[in-house]
Structures are given as structure tokens and as C-alpha cells.
Amino acid sequence: MSNQSRTFESWPALPYAAWRDTCETLQLWTQIVGKVRLARTPWLNHSWHVTLYVTARGLTTSPVPDGARSFQIDFDFIDHLLVLATSDGTRREVPLRPQSVADFYAAVMAALAALGIDVTISMMPNEIPNAVRFDQDRQHASYDADAAQRFWRVLVDADRVFKRFRTAFLGKSSPVHFFWGSFDLAVTRFSGRRAPLHPGGVPNLSNEVAREAYSHEVSSAGFWPGGGAIDYPAFYSYAYPAPDGFAAARVRPDEAFFSSDLGEFILPYDAVRSAPQPDAALLAFLQSTYEAAADLANWDRAALECEAGRPGRPRQM
Length: 317
What we know:
The chain is an alpha+beta fold. It has 2 domains: 16-136; 145-304, no CATH class. It has helices spanning 16-40, 101-114, 145-166, 207-213, 269-273, 278-296, 301-304, and strands at residues 53-54, 58-60, 64-66, 69-76, 81-86, 91-95, 177-179, 184-194, 216-224, 234-240, 257-259, 264-268. The strands form 2 sheets. Strands 1, 2, 3, 4, 5 and 6 form a 6-stranded antiparallel sheet that branches. It has a 6-stranded antiparallel sheet with strand order 7-8-9-10-12-11. The radius of gyration is 20 Å and the shape is globular. The termini are far apart. 36% of the residues are buried. The model has no long low-confidence stretch (mean pLDDT 96).
């Protein structure tokens, strides 16, 4: 592991077309790791038990139970390693390099076995149309180390702003976490009221899981690197259920728009990256889209909100 200091650009360029193949491969790799956590962690509302978290070097499962001990799996996008470590001091590494999903799956399972961890995961990717079993996928085999590192840097920047946004809400709120199924970093606020039954229909995801995830009213925002309906990285914000008039709401900054195809507000990443104050531009998007959802759905904002948190200063009562 390198101990040398390095300089990283904030809000780096991330053109989707330039790293599409790596992005698709990396999503499948994160699904393999995420499914290990899924197989060993008790269910938590809205599938919060399966997510990954941004770290100072990449993404982590956080500690996963293994009997009396625990283990953790980390993507390190600085030294380009997958690090598997246990609470009793043992460790294995898998290099992050061009390799097929099938080879990566085999390497991860071998590393877990070497650590004495016996785990079986579902072999089918989730939320991906026309998916291929992990152990049979030799088509996805790209890894552009520079692009993967820039993607992680975007996650670091977004994570910082999302966490700041989260501090101004007293109601139920998700952690800032990374969903490997949809391959996005997200933060979600809840009104406290039940939502109508979700219709399901997400590719390779059971309706039971989707309906539990959307059991309550939400305003949710996140970052997605691109693919599918949009071919560029973007921030998004949606409400479930979407209240009447939501699509026509005025939000900030000016570059934000409502996508009828996606059913959510979109702010292109490049609009944030090129803004004079990127953090402020993203916060404006998060706050204005939340306000549109909360006001139109008659959330009890007075009871749910508070002043944004500040380091070292308790919230005034």
C-alpha cells in the first residue's frame, strides 16, 4: 500500500462514453461484493443492509458478521485492490485490473475461502436487463484504473454534499450509501407516512424487495454515472409517490429539468462541475427538489426540518 501523498482533482471529468465498458464491469464487481454482505447481514428496512459506503480510498461493505468475528471488503481505488480483512487480523487482496466478471467472482470466492469464510451468493445480477450469471460472464472484462479512480472522486465529492444536506432533517433519513444494484449514491428523506403499494417490475429484482423498499413516502436524491435512459453522469431527485404538480415544479439551478422518461428531476453532472461553486449548486438542487416534493405532498416540514448542522455545535433546542 502506498503512503505517498497524491493530489486529486475535485469534481473531475467523467464522460460516460469514455469509460462505459469499465463502468458496466465495475457495477457487476460491486454486485458480487454487495451480495456477500446481503448473504450475511440481517434484513434492514428499505434494503439498507446491503449497501456500500464511500471511504477515503474507495467503497466498503463496513463490518459483516461471521460468527464471533467480522470481516470487511473494500474497493481501494488508489492502489486498485479489493481488500478482504477480518477482525482477527487476517487479510487477502484481489488486484483490480482488466479481468472478466467470471474471473473476478472466482478470485473473490477463493479469497473468502482462504479467510475461512463460507458464503454463497445469488449468481444473477440485479436491476440489469438481459443479465448473465457472474460465473459465466466473460464479456465484461474492462478496467480503466484512471476512470475508476475519477468515478470514486466524484463519489467522494457527492458524499460530502449529501451528508451536509442530510443534517438539516430531523425525520427519518437514510445514510448516504451506494446501491450496487442501480449503481448510484443516494440519500433519502421520509415523511413518516405509508406509501401506496409499489408496482414492482424492476429488472431482475423481486417485487417483494421493491415493495419493501418503497413502503413509505420518500423524497430521494442521488448520483448516477450514466447509461440506459441518459448517456451522461447526473444527479437525480424523485418523490414516491410523486404528488400532483411535481413534474412542473420550479427547481434550481437553471440546468435542472424534469425527465418524463425517468419520472424524476435531473441535473447533469457537468453543470455542477462547471459551476462557480459546485457544492452550492448541488445543494440548491437537493433542497429545491426536496421542497417541491414536501410542499406538494403536504409533509409536516416544521416538525421534520432543522438548521443544517455545523461542526462542533450542538443543535439549539
